[in-house]
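Deviation from plan, reported transparently: guanosine-5'-diphosphate complex.
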Amino acid sequence: SNRRVLTDAGSSDPLQWFAQAQQSITVNFKELLEIIDYSDTLIKGSGELIAMSECQQKVTEHRQKVCRVMEVLARDHMKVAFFGVTLSGKSTAINAMLSEKVLPFGMGHRTNCILQIEGSDSENGYVLTEREPDTPKSIEQLEISIKKLADALKNNESNFVRILFPKTKCRLLREGVVLVEGPGIGVTTELNLWLDKFCLDADVFVLVSDAVATLTQTEKNFFQKVSERLSSTNIFVLLNRWDQSVFEDDVAEVREQHIDRHLEFLYQELNGMDRDKGLERIFFVSAKEALSTRLVEKGEERAKAQLPGQEERHIRFCNFERALEECMSQTAVKTKFERNNNLGKSITTENCALVKDILKSIRQHIDRMRFDRNEMAKHLDFMERQLTMFKCEFKYKITKTVAGVCTEIAKMLTDEINR
Ligand code: GDP
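Because the crystal trials were delayed, the predicted structure below was used instead.
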């Protein structure tokens, strides 16, 4: 049904969920860095009063960890991996999603190449191969490069080709989506290698299947292998070439058969998943028509005669994209940020404990000396209150002001002590 596309138009772009989460976790980590800087100042401010080398080392460790996470965060992206047997229409589906003829299609023999498309800030884009990672090739030569590679590869080898395509041309790439097309192979050891190396970190998987041909044993085995490796919760099924079904007499029957087979594949491991839920992941489409419609819209191709039901198939393709984007964005936020968020929290806790220890040591030191105790205690209480506050909240919300005040007091204490 086209309900989703029509009624959800007002809601925000799912791909933005990821971007927003990425932004807010980055802000959190920046604030955490400030806390770490504060503890660093406190340690330095306390001078030679107490043995600080251990604390200093810990703070350095915290800073290194946070910096590493921030680097990873900046590079994080969403990833969708396509798989299916050769000539099922994977390249065409990817091109349709990008509204660009990025991948060459109908090249059945390049079975051992894994193609990855990612966004590039460069105007023309370029291609990098695993064998010559330092020699960028032009996008125009992609087909030739792939053919050459495929010919050069021995039977059991695979090669990874990165296509860096201009972000300005495709929304998906602009929003940080990376698309991977797997080798269209049957069941070999290569498949496992491929899944492990390039797919396990994908947020969603799209199985492209030829809806006109009947499911072959190779395909069944292939599905079996894939489902052993991946969690089926994030798999979508594109039953492609559905435009061809208009020539068949038994469309309804074929459709039911496909649904049953693919539901079995999708949910054999998921207990309690019902048919309706499963159906939300299966789409009868025509990637070829979707691509053509979009190229016509962009004025890059002339409109061709339409087969009956083309509009409906296109709406289904749009629904597929929307569902995929929602799933991908949600999954990416969860898998990529949740762990780091927890790490941030634990560093905050550790850092707080560290600062408390330092304060305790300072207090003990002061106690041993004869200063104006009342005055001192007031300052220390204030400082501890600040620290408890941010510890309780467990956010990284120690603002510059709080850090500033604490630093000032730390300095005052030190001056006082050294006087
Ligand atoms: P891949 O090997 O899985 O990447 O498949 P390709 O995308 O290269 O497609 C193989 C051939 O099928 C190409 O000639 C495409 O034009 C054609 N094809 C792809 N999708 C469709 C479709 O939905 N309908 C029809 N009729 N042909 C398609």
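The mean pLDDT is 78. We consider this an acceptable substitute for the interim report.
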